[in-house]
C-alpha cells in the first residue's frame, strides 16, 4: 500500500462501525493531517514523504517537551510519523536520528503513556533503526544513538501490557533481520539484544527459584515476567539468525533449568527456543555455531537419575543431532556409536520417564542420523560404525536392561527400519535372541517380539531370518519347535525380496502339506488335516508380499512358475484371491517406480532403478497374453461376488499387454460375445425361463454378461481402429430391453472410455453417432439401466460440439422425469446432469440451437440462441404437461437449476418463475404442491430480498392453505418455510401478509423461537452451553457443521420444526444427513453375559425405552388401600389402560412403535414369562408413580381375591369377553379393547362399581357381562 493510500484512509470519514474512543482519536488525527497539509500548501511545499516528515517533526517538538507531554496531540502526530517514516529517505532518517529520538524519548517514558501513543512510537523507532548504518551502530548505548533506542525497545518488549509487548517484539525482529551492510553475518546489535534478554531471563529465573523455596506449594509471582522474558529470548533467537555463539552456554543452562518447571507453558517456551536455535543453525550460514552448541549441551548433562531434568535434556540432544545430521550427515554418523552408548546408559534408570525419553532419543538417532549413502554404498568406515551399533544393540538385550525391555524392543524396531538391508548380517544375533524369547511360553511380550521379527523380515529379507529361525513345520526335530506363528508375520512384512525364496522354500512346503490333505481322501477330516489346509492357505497368502518389487523378477518369474500359478487358479478356488493379488502387485509395484518423477533415489525406490523396473514390465508383458487367457476362463467360472480381485488383475495385465496380442484378445472376446447374443436371441421363452431357473440355483450369470464385463475392462486399452467394433456392440445391446442387466453394462462402456485419452478422442469424434444411439434407445431403456444411461449422457455432454446443442432439448424431458425416479442414485445423477447441461449451454452462449432437429418438433421450428434463460425455458416446457408426475418433475428440476444458477439469471426471469410457482401453489394435486414447496423454500432463502418482498402478499396466504394438511408432512414443510421467511424478512412482515385466522401459527413459531433462546441462554449461564456428547444446544445451530453456506442456511434450523426432508437434500445436491439422535437408546443385557453387538439378533436387545428388571418369584408386590383401609387391586393402571378420549399426559412414552415397543413387549417388566411346566405367567407389578403404602405377599393377594369374588381365572377370561358399555356393569368388550401383548391383567376397582368417570369405561369385578 502506498503512502497516499494510507493517508486517504485517514482522511476518510466512514467511522460508523468504530467505537467512540476510536472515532475521537481518528478525528483528531484527521484534523492534524489536514493542518499539516494546509501548512505545506501555504509554504508551497510539495506533499512528499520528506515534506510530511519535516512538518510532523516540527509539530512533535511542540507536542512533546522534556517536562510535559500533550498526550492527545502527541498521539496523533506520532501516529502520522509512524505512517510517513517508512517512506522517508534513509539519509534524512540517519541525519535526524538524534533529534527524533530526543523528541520521542519523553513520550516513551511518559508515565501515563498508553498503547495508542506507545505503539506508533515503537513503529517510528523501528523505521529509524532499520535506516541506520554500521557507523551509527558503533556508538555506545551511553550516547544518543541506535543502541540506546534498542535498549528502550528491549525494555518495552517485556512490558506487562500485551499489545505494547507484541509491538516491541515485532520491531526488534524486523530490526535484527535488517542488518546494515557489513562483513559480519549477525546484526551489530544482536550481541547486545542477546545479552540483555539473557540477563533478564537469568535474574527472573533466580528470583522465581528463591520464591519457590521460600513459599512452598505457592505459584510464583515472577512467572508472568519470566514468560515475557522467555518470549523476548525467543524473539531475539528467531530474528538474529541463531543465538550468538558466545552466549550459547549460559542460555542453555538457564533454559534447561526452566524446562523442568511444573509450569507447562514455560517448559514448552524453553523447548521452542531450543527448536528455533536449532532451526536457525540448519541454514548453511549459521551451521558453524552448531558444534559448539552441541558440545555445550553435552557438558550440561544432568545426573544419572534426575527424573526432572534428564528428559528435557535428552529431548534437546535428540533435536540437536537431528539438525546436525542435516548439516553434516557423514560426521554425525561417525559419532553415532558414542552417542548411542551415552543415551543407552539411561535405559538402566529406575525412572520410567527417563527410560521412555532415552528410547525416543535412540529411535530419533536411527531415523535421522543414518544417511542414504550408508545404505546404498557404505564405505569401510561406515561398516565399522554399523558393527559398533550392532554390538550396542545386542547389549540392550542383556540382563542389565531387563527393566527396559519394552523400550529396548522399540529401539530394535527403529534400528531395523533405519538400517534396512544393511541390517543383514550385523543384526542376526538380535533376531536370534528375540526369536528364542518368543519361543519361550512364559514370555509375556510376544506381541512386541512379533513386531520386531516382522521388521527384521522386512529389512533383512525372509531368507535371512528363516535361516536363523526356521519354520520346522514338516519334520520338527527334538529341541527345535515348529514356528507356524511366523507365517502371519511373514504375510504382513515380506516385501522387496527375492521371489526365488518363495519358489524354493514355500512352494515345496505347500505341495507336501497339500499331499497330506489329498492322501486323506474322502475320509472325515481330522484336526491335523484341517491344520494342513490352513497352513497351505497361509503359505500362499505370502505370495503378494514376495511379488512386491522382487529383486530377481526376471530370473524367478519363468514359464514353469507361471504354469504353476495358472494350474492353481483353475484348481484351487480358495487360493485365487492371493494369487491374483500377487500377479497384480508384480505389475503395479514396478509401474509405481516408473511413475516417480525427478532424479533416481535408490533408497526410496527400494534398490529397483527405473531401468530395472522397465525391464521387469517388459518381461511380464511376455506372459500377459497367456495369463489373460487363464484369467478370463477363471473369471467366467467364478461367482459374481468373488470376481473383484480377478477383474483388477485382468486390468493390470491389459495395461502392459503388447498391442497386437491385445487386439487378438479383443477379437476373441467380441466374437464369443456375438455368438452368445445370437444364441440367447434364438432361444424361446421357455428355454430362457429354464436357463434362468438353472442360473438361479447356481447363481452364475449368463456368459454374455461375463463377456460384456471383459469388453468394458479391455475398452480403455484399445487402439482407435477397434472402436468401430466396440460401438457396434454397444448399439446392439443398448436396444435389447429383454436383458436389463446386459443393457446396464452396455451403458457403462461410455463412462469407461472417458477414462483414457484415446477414449476421449473417440467420444469426441463419434459424438453425433452416440447422440443418435441414445435418442433412438430412449424407449427401450429398462429401470435398472436408468442410472447408467444418465451417467452415459453426462459423460457425453462435455464432448458435444456447439453445432449439436439440439441434443440437450432432445434428451431433456427424459432427464427431467428421472428427477422423480424411485432409485436414489438415479435421481442424484439426473440432478447432476441438469447442472452439467446448463453449464454446457452457458459455455456455448451465443451458439445456435436448431430446434428443427429436435424429435417431435416441426421442420420449420425456429432456431434459438443458446443462453441460460433459454435453458430455463426448455425445462419449464414440462409445466404445460397433462400428467401431474411430469409437472412435479419439472418443478423439481427447476428448483435444482434455479439454486445453482440463481446469481447468473436475469431478474425478469426470476420474477416470472416465482410468479408461476405462486400460481402452482394453489393447485389441488398434492404431488405438484409438494414440489412447489421445495421451490418456494429455495426462493425464500436464496433469491434477492427486493424480489421476494412484493410476492409475500400472495405467497404467504397460498402457503397457509397447506398448513392445515397433515398428509406428506405438508404442515411441517410450511412451518419450516415460514420460519425461514421470519428469519430473513422479519416476523412483522410475514405477519402482515398472513390471513387473520392463520396468524396463530406465526405466533407459535415466534414463541418457540423465544423459548429456545431463553433455554439456550440459561444453559450458557449455567455453564452448560453444549452437552458432553456433542449434541446441539436447544434452538441453536452449530457453526462449521455444514458443507456449504446454503446447507447451513437451510438445515441449520431448530430441531423441533425442521421441515426439510431427504428429497430436499437431493434436489440441492446435498448428501443425505445422518438421522439426528432423538432421545436415549438403551441396551438390555442378560445378567450372566454382556450383549454381543456383532450378533444379528442384537437389534432385539436395543430399545428406546429404559429396560426394567424382571420381577423375581416370591418377591413382595405392592398394593393400594382406600380411605377405609380396604385393599384396592388394579387401580390407576387399569384406568390408564381404559382411557378412550382423554389421554393421559406423557403420551409420547406410551405411543411407541417399532423396535422399542416390540422389545418392551417381550423383554420389559410386564413381559409374559414361562414358569414351571411351560405355563405362561403374567406380571402385575405397578409403576413407580403408583402408591406404595403397603407390601403384601402374593399368597395374601390370592386369598383376598377369593373373598372379593375376583379369582384370577375369571378375571383373565373377563378381559377377553364382550360386555355392555351401559352402566359400566359389563367387562371387556370392544370399547375396552383387547389386552395387548405384555399388558397387565385388568381388574375392576371395588370403589367404582356401577359406572365410569371422566370419560373412562370401568370394568366390574363381578362375573361376565351380558350380551
Automatic annotation (TrEMBL):
Compositionally biased region (Gly residues): 1217-1231
A single Gene Ontology CC term: nucleus
Cell membrane is among the record's keywords: no
Chief localisation class: nucleus
Domain RRP12 N-terminal HEAT positions: 20-239
Pfam families: HEAT_RRP12_N, RRP12_HEAT
Alphabetized UniProt keyword annotations: Nucleus
Subcellular location as annotated: Nucleus
Compositional bias annotation for Polar residues: 14-23
Record-given protein name: ARM repeat-containing protein
Organism the protein comes from: Glarea lozoyensis (strain ATCC 20868 / MF5171)
Taxonomic placement: Eukaryota, Fungi, Dikarya, Ascomycota, Pezizomycotina
Amino acid at each position: 500500500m502506498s503512502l497516499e493510500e494510507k493517508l486517504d484512509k485517514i482522511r476518510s470519514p466512514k467511522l460508523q462501525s468504530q467505537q467512540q474512543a476510536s472515532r475521537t482519536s481518528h478525528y483528531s488525527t484527521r484534523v492534524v493531517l489536514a493542518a499539516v497539509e494546509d501548512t505545506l500548501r501555504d509554504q508551497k511545499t510539495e506533499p512528499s514523504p520528506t515534506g510530511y516528515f519535516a512538518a510532523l517533526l516540527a509539530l512533535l517538538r511542540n507536542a512533546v517537551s522534556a517536562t510535559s507531554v500533550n498526550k492527545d496531540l502527541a498521539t496523533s502526530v506520532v501516529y502520522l510519523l509512524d505512517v510517513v517514516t517508512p517512506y522517508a529517505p534513509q539519509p534524512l532518517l540517519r541525519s535526524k536520528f538524534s533529534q527524533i529520538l530526543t523528541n520521542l524519548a519523553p513520550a516513551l517514558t511518559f508515565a501515563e503513556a498508553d498503547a495508542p501513543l506507545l505503539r506508533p512510537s515503537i513503529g517510528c523507532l523501528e523505521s529509524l533503526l532499520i535506516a541506520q548504518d554500521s557507523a551509527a551502530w558503533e556508538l555506545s548505548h551511553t550516547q544518543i544513538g541506535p543502541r540506546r533506542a534498542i535498549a528502550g525497545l528491549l525494555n518495552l518488549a517485556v512490558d506487562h501490557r500485551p499489545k505494547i509487548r507484541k509491538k516491541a517484539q515485532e520491531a526488534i525482529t524486523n530490526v535484527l533481520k535488517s542488518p546494515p551492510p557489513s562483513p559480519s553475518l549477525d546484526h551489530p546489535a544482536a550481541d547486545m539484544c542477546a545479552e540483555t534478554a539473557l540477563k533478564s531471563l537469568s535474574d527472573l529465573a533466580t528470583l522465581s527459584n528463591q520464591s519457590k523455596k521460600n513459599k512452598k506449594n505457592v505459584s510464583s509471582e515472577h512467572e508472568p515476567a519470566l514468560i515475557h522474558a522467555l518470549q523476548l529470548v525467543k524473539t531475539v533467537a528467531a530474528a538474529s539468525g541463531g543465538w550468538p555463539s558466545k552466549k550459547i552456554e549460559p542460555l542453555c543452562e538457564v533454559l534447561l533449568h526452566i524446562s523442568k518447571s511444573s509450569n507447562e507453558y514455560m517448559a514448552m517456551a524453553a523447548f521452542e527456543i531450543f527448536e528455533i536455535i536449532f532451526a536457525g543453525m540448519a541454514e548453511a550460514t549459521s551451521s558453524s555455531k552448531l558444534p559448539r552448541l552441541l558440545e555445550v549441551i553435552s557438558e550440561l548433562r544432568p545426573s544419572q537419575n534426575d527424573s526432572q531434568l534428564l528428559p528435557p535434556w535428552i529431548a534437546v540432544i535428540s533435536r540437536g543431532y537431528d539438525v546436525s545430521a542435516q548439516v553434516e550427515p557423514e560426521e554425525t554418523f561417525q559419532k553415532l556409536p558414542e552417542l548411542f552408548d551415552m543415551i543407552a546408559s539411561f535405559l538402566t534408570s529406575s525412572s520410567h520417564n527417563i527410560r521412555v525419553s532415552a528410547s525416543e532419543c535412540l529411535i530419533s538417532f536411527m531415523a535421522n542420523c543414518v544417511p542414504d549413502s550408508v545404505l546404498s554404498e557404505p564405505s569401510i568406515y561406515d561398516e565399522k560404525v554399523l558393527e559398533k551399533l550392532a554390538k550396542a544393540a545386542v547389549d540392550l538385550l542383556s540382563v542389565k536392561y531387563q527393566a527396559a525391555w519394552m523400550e529396548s524392543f522399540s529401539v530394535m524396531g527403529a534400528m531395523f527400519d533405519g538400517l534396512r538391508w544393511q541390517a543383514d548380517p550385523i543384526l542376526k544375533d538380535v533376531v536370534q535372541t528375540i526369536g528364542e524369547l518368543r519361543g519361550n511360553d512364559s514370555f509375556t511380550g510376544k506381541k512386541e517380539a512379533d513386531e520386531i521379527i516382522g521388521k527384521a523380515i522386512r529389512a533383512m529379507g525372509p531368507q535371512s531370518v528363516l535361516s536363523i529361525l526356521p519354520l520346522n513345520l514338516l519334520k520338527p526335530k527334538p529341541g527345535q519347535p515348529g514356528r507356524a506363528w511366523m507365517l502371519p508375520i511373514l504375510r504382513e512384512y515380506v516385501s522387496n525380496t527375492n521371489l526365488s525364496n518363495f519358489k524354493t522354500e514355500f512352494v515345496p512346503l505347500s505341495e507336501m502339506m497339500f499331499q497330506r490333505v489329498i492322501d486323506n481322501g474322502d475320509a472325515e477330516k481330522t484336526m491335523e488335516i484341517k491344520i494342513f489346509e490352513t497352513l497351505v492357505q497361509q503359505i500362499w497368502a505370502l505370495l503378494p508380499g514376495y511379488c512386491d518389487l522382487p529383486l530377481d523378477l526376471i530370473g524367478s518369474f519363468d514359464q514353469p512358475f507361471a504354469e504353476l500359478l495358472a494350474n492353481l487358479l483353475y484348481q484351487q478356488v480358495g487360493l485365487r484371491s492371493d494369487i491374483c493379488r500377487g500377479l497384480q502387485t508384480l505389475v503395479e509395484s514396478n509401474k509405481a517406480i516408473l511413475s516417480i518423477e525427478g532424479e533416481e533415489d535408490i533408497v526410496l525406490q527400494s534398490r529397483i532403478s527405473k531401468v530395472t523396473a522397465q525391464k521387469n514390465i517388459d518381461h511380464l508383458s511376455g506372459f500377459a497374453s497367456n495369463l489373460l487367457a487363464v484369467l478370463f476362463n477363471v473369471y467366467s467360472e467364478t461367482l459374481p461376488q468373488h470376481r473383484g480381485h480377478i477383474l483388477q488383475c485382468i486390468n493390470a495385465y491389459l495395461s502392459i499387454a503388447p498391442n497386437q496380442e491385445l487386439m487378438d484378445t479383443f477379437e476373441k472376446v467380441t466374437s464369443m460375445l456375438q455368438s452368445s447374443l445370437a444364441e440367447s436371441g434364438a432361444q424361446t421363452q421357455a428355454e430362457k425361463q429354464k436357463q434362468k431357473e438353472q442360473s438361479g440355483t447356481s447363481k452364475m450369470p449368463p456368459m454374455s454378461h461375463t463377456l460384456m464385463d471383459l469388453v468394458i475392462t479391455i475398452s480403455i486399452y484399445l487402439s482407435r481402429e477397434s472402436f468401430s467394433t466396440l460401438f457396434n456392440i454397444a448399439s446392439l445391446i443398448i436396444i435389447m430391453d429383454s436383458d436389463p442387466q446386459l443393457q446396464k453394462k452396455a451403458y457403462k462402456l461410455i463412462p469407461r472410455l472417458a477414462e483414457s485419452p484415446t477414449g476421449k478422442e473417440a467420444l469426441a469424434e463419434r459424438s453425433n453417432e452416440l447422440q443418435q444411439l441414445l435418442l433412438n434407445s430412449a424407449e427401450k431403456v429398462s429401470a435398472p439401466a436408468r442410472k447408467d444411461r444418465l451417467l452415459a449422457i453426462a459423460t457425453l455432454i462435455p464432448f458435444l460440439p456447439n453445432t449439436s446443442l439440439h441434443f440437450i432439448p432432445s434428451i431433456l424431458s427424459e432427464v427431467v422425469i428421472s428427477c422423480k425416479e424411485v432409485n436414489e442414485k438415479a435421481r442424484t445423477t439426473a440432478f447432476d446432469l441438469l447442472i452439467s447441461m446448463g453449464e454446457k449451454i452457458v459455455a456455448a452462449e451465443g451458439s445456435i440451437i436448431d430446434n428443427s432437429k429436435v424429435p417431435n418438433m416441426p421442420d420449420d421450428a425456429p432456431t434459438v440462441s443458446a443462453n441460460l434463460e433459454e435453458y430455463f425455458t426448455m425445462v419449464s416446457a414440462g409445466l404445460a404437461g397433462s400428467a401431474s408426475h411430469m409437472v412435479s418433475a419439472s418443478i423439481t428440476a427447476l428448483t435444482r437449476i434455479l439454486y445453482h444458477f440463481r446469481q447468473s439469471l436475469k431478474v425478469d426471469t426470476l420474477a416470472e418463475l416465482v410468479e408461476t410457482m405462486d400460481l402452482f401453489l394453489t393447485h389441488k394435486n398434492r404431488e405438484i404442491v409438494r414440489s412447489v414447496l421445495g421451490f418456494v423454500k429455495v426462493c425464500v432463502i436464496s433469491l434477492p430480498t427486493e424480489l421476494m418482498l412484493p410476492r409475500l402478499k400472495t405467497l404467504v396466504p397460498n402457503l397457509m392453505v397447506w398448513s392445515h394438511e397433515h398428509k406428506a408432512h405438508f404442515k411441517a414443510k410450511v412451518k419450516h418455510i415460514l420460519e425461514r421467511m421470519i428469519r430473513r424478512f422479519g416476523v412483522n412482515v410475514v405477519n402482515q401478509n398472513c390471513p387473520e385466522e392463520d396468524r396463530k401459527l406465526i405466533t407459535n413459531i415466534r414463541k418457540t423461537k423465544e423459548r429456545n433462546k431463553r433455554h439456550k441462554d440459561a444453559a450458557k449461564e449455567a455453564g452448560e452451553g453444549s452437552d458432553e456428547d456433542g449434541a446441539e444446544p436447544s434452538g441453536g445451530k452449530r457453526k462449521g457443521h455444514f458443507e456449504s453456506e446454503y446447507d447451513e442456511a437451510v438445515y441449520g434450523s431448530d430441531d423441533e420444526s425442521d421441515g426439510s426432508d431427504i428429497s430436499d437434500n437431493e434436489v440441492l445436491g446435498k448428501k443425505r444427513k445422518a438421522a439426528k439422535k432423538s432421545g436415549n437408546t438403551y441396551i438390555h443385557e442378560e445378567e450372566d453375559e454382556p450383549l454381543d453387538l456383532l450378533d444379528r439378533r442384537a437389534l432385539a436387545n436395543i430399545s428406546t425405552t429404559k429396560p426394567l428388571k424382571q420381577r423375581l418369584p416370591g418377591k413382595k408386590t405392592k398394593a393400594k388401600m382406600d380411605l377405609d383401609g380396604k385393599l384396592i387391586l388394579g387401580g390407576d393402571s387399569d384406568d390408564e389402560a381404559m382411557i378412550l378420549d382423554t389421554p393421559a399426559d406423557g403420551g409420547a412414552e406410551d405411543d411407541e412403535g417399532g423396535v422399542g415397543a416390540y422389545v418392551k413387549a417381550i423383554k420389559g417388566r410386564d413381559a409374559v414369562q414361562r414358569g414351571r411346566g411351560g405355563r405362561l405367567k403374567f406380571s402385575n407389578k405397578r409403576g413407580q408413580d403408583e402408591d406404595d403404602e403397603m407390601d403384601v405377599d402374593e399368597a395374601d393377594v390370592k386369598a383376598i381375591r377369593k373373598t372379593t369374588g375376583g379369582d384370577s381365572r375369571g378375571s383373565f377370561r373377563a378381559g377377553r369377553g364382550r360386555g355392555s358399555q351401559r352402566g359400566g356393569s359389563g367387562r371387556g368388550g370392544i370399547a375396552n379393547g383387547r389386552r395387548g401383548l405384555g399388558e397387565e391383567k385388568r381388574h375392576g376397582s371395588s370403589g367404582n362399581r356401577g359406572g365410569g368417570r371422566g370419560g373412562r369405561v370401568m370394568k366390574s369385578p363381578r362375573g361376565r357381562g351380558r350380551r
